[in-house]
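so ive been stuck on this for like two days lol. basically i have the seq below and the ligand is magnesium ion, smiles is in there too. i just want the complex predicted, nothing fancy, no docking runs or whatever. if the output looks off dont worry ill sanity check it later, just need somthing to start from for the group meeting slides
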Amino acid sequence: MSEQPKTFPVSWEQLHRDAKALSWRLMNEGPFEGILAVTRGGLVPAAIIARELDIRLIDTVCIVSYSSDNKQGELKVLKDAPKESKGWLIVDDLVDTGKTARAVREMMPDAHFATLYAKPAGRDIVDSFITEVSQDTWIYFPWDLALQTVPPLVQGKYD
Ligand SMILES: O=P(O)(O)OC[C@H]1O[C@H](OP(=O)(O)OP(=O)(O)O)[C@H](O)[C@@H]1O
Ligand SMILES: O=c1[nH]c(=O)c2nc[nH]c2[nH]1
Ligand SMILES: [Mg+2]
């Protein structure tokens, strides 16, 4: 039997629950001047955290790291972070290799960096996260998913 790829699919409910759990954790780290969302993955978590912590000042840093076939390439910064980082909260959906987080950290050295999910290679670069998954797991976010049928693990025995 071929090895199934490791996946970690996240539903909207789970994402909302994890973003609220992260907000609870961040209550002890603030208060924050504003949130810097790392687009695009950080936008939805940032909106939920901003609602929970009553933060109304939101900015973005716009970075492309992975292509549409999930392969990492050169980082492209389309829009820089603001100059001031003291008291700011950086939010992204996940840290994987840590390449994106390292680049954003350089732009905002004094900010607190939070993600929902972390893989081992990147976990030490961020300050707060909720769930760790193994390095060989691909996380699927609800905005990338659709309801569909899946085949059973074993099929065709009685064909
Ligand atoms: O730790 P790393 O290996 O750098 O990977 C993590 C980054 O990769 C993904 O973004 P992506 O570039 O796919 O863009 P997106 O947020 O627009 O989907 C994810 O949202 C993180 O920002
Ligand atoms: O949707 C995603 N899932 C992942 O596990 C991942 N790692 C880097 N970039 C990613 N994007
Ligand atoms: Mg991203």
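The pocket of PRP (ligand 1) is lined by residues 38-41, 64-66, 72, 92-101, 122 (CB under 6 Å). The chain has one domain: 7-144.
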